[in-house]
């Protein structure tokens, strides 16, 4: 079980009315882990501030003062002041080491993500070398509205081409790159990770300012020196924007239908061409983005939002063809840039769904009792690994290979005693797939030899 507590920031608008508002709410959620998958148990949200965009919240906003008193998270929030009993059992030292490495992987991925955001907040000729240094030597990085540069050296040279080689002691403008709400998937060995994070980009200068939003799709690896580095960095932008602080995000006019499909290319594209141009990427991936293919989609029009992972609970694939796992340029266009070509594992794309069920023919003592176990991965992912079916009087095992297509049927021992049996089906996981588990209840009337599954 787990709890989360935080502040929700809402940027709400109505383009047809030209109105916008700020909303700040307190949330406290509880989660429970069932069969290896985290799910919501309880959701609590309470508004604290609702304020008109232009007036701000300096005078208290437009809603009555909140009566909610947010509490600190501790054991008392669940009705007890006693620590929760630890039920985990000891495993081999190798397995415990792997789990610890995966825990470090979440911290390492978020840390390098934040470092990148800080470096490009203040990007100039001097900061280019610092930003490039957090990339792996064989990394690839997208330069906005242009394309992807492959290798750390090319990333550095593209940056210096755009910003020069000198530091700026003062600046008239700044564009922040905040990367909130990261969704992180760590590989089974804890040496690589995928991260999807929002871009929240407040920008200001001496005369104007904006707020804009996009989405990052990144991969990170643990190098031979034990340091986390960026392997691939992609930015989808902008999903929403505003013209100025005065008008806000509710005052953006619909783009003129007669406007050019794409703006003129950046100077960087002509002066230092990328290794993979955005408009060279076939298929739907860069359609509608500035610098990509066809007509770019500008807020308040709605652009397709891409996902590199499946639904964390159901395992379902995102709708509307918006599923693009792994390194964005590697998936279909530059597979030789992928991390598996250099000795790292691809992180999983979501839960491995394990389902145990009675196979056809149950209920006949002549046929025996059969349990079918299926292991469902993401699209294109091969199921290889160990499946076990275990109970108080049952211990069965099978090694799945690609030819099994993720399914095995076990025959239960014929000498099982009568009564209730709880069986657990587990999948060990593999280089690409998370472990998974499911349970099934079996009730046998009478004594040995009698078979009837509920």
Automatic annotation (TrEMBL):
Coiled coil: none annotated. It holds the Pfam family SnoaL_4. Residues 111-233 form the SnoaL-like domain. This is SnoaL-like domain-containing protein. It comes from Podospora pseudopauciseta.
